[in-house]
């Protein structure tokens, strides 16, 4: 069960880091709109990370 929680954490963190890294490689004019998209994507990743942890914890407790 702990393996599932660890995998969720690793995948979520990797996705967040990948998003931020990809956002850093943009042109100057394109960067303004990309900044807002990066903030939104980061918020989605944080929400999904928390939701995934709650779901895995609920699954472990309900066994």
Automatic annotation (TrEMBL):
Keywords: Membrane, Transmembrane, Transmembrane helix. The chain crosses the membrane at residues 39-61. This is Protein-export membrane protein SecG.
